[in-house]
Amino acid sequence: MKRRLISTALALGAVASSLALPAQAQSQPPARVGSLMQISVVDRGTGAELPVYRHRGEYWVAGRPGARYAIRARNAMGERIMAVMSVDGVNVVTGETAGVGQNGYVFGARERSDITGWRKSDSQIAAFEFAAAGNSYASRTGRPDDVGVIGVAMFRERMPEPPPPPVTPYPRRDEFGDRERRSESSSLGDARAKAAPGAAADKSVAAESAASPSGSMARQSAPSPSLGTAHGRRETSYVGKTTFERAQSSPDEVIRIRYDSRENLVAAGVIPVPPPPRWPRPAGPSPFPGSEPGYVPDPPPRY
Q1: Residue 10's closest CA among 294, 238, 199, 216?
Q2: 38 phi and psi, to 5 degrees?
Q3: Cα–Cα dist 228/295, whole Å
Q4: What distance separates the 2 farthest-apart alpha carbons in the chain?
Q5: Of the four, 48, 115, 169, 288, which is 20 to 30 A from 20 by CA?
Q6: pTM for this structure?
Q7: What are the strands of the beta sheet with 227-236, ordered from one edge?
Q8: β-strands 253-261, 112-115: how paired?
Q9: Domain boundaries, the chain
Q10: For residue 112, what is the enclosing H or E element?
């Protein structure tokens, strides 16, 4: 079933999926996750991609209260990919309580784009802004249970089936006698009868393959952290509309990134903190500075 889905209107062109980093930077936590698409969270004030920390099987980023941020998505495939995005359990395009079957953004092959806010129209968004959980858009609209998580569900596009090859009519030869024509017609019918079971089997296998689901996304609930995403100031952001038919009903990949303040993540052990440096202690006085044997001598005379 075809759906009309919002797509970015401006083509950003192909962008490299990875960058060469100096040796010191390579030791830092990665900033991007995902296979079909590389997802990162960008601090719009500094332009830096936030480090992604992996802790107990989950991805985390540290946000700054009051800072605006963007979800940066890079299509790593040579085909169109649809991304249904949610923040705090709310669809960023429609404002619905998020579900994987809803509308999203369509990215062209190798395309990169920053999703900077809640979609208000074809030309405006309300900026994503880290804020106290109680001031988040989800909490203010009565949906506080999933505050503190960013989700991206990705879908491949169904490719149109190639048209069947044209049927070449059997050439009519007037010089053939009735017997030759009947004989060749009978041979052609036998050949078609032999090929029919194989073709039927191919169709049966294709039908079973199309009916087999590739998996489903299990809904996971998370505790409400202290940081959420507010409905920030209005900004200009143009999009267009396109049609997209999913190859299957379940997502081909789901990315889940949780976030909170750096202080809370350090306290929870998500961000490792190196121990303070140990300074060498001074040598101090020695109880046995000399090793000469003997008895206690008299002190020198006073002057």
Answers
A1: 238
A2: -95, 120
A3: 78
A4: 151
A5: 115
A6: 0.65
A7: 117-119, 124-132, 227-236
A8: unpaired
A9: 3-161+219-267
A10: strand 112-115
Three-state SS letters, 50-76: CCCEEECCEEEEEECCCCEEEEEEEEC
Please state the length of the chain.
303
Q: How many helices (H) and strands (E) does the chain have?
A: 4, 15
HSE-CB at 243 with a 13 A cutoff on CA atoms is: 6
Decide if 79 contacts 246 (C-beta within 8 A): no
List the chain pLDDT tens, one digit each, 303 residues.
Answer: 333 443 332 222 333 333 333 333 345 678 899 999 999 999 999 999 999 999 999 999 999 999 999 999 999 999 999 999 999 999 999 999 999 999 999 999 999 999 999 999 999 999 999 999 999 999 999 999 999 999 999 999 998 878 888 877 665 555 445 555 555 555 555 555 444 444 433 433 333 433 333 333 333 444 445 899 999 999 999 999 999 999 999 999 999 999 999 999 999 999 998 887 777 766 767 776 676 667 777 778 876
* Alpha-carbon span 122 to 124, nearest angstrom: 6
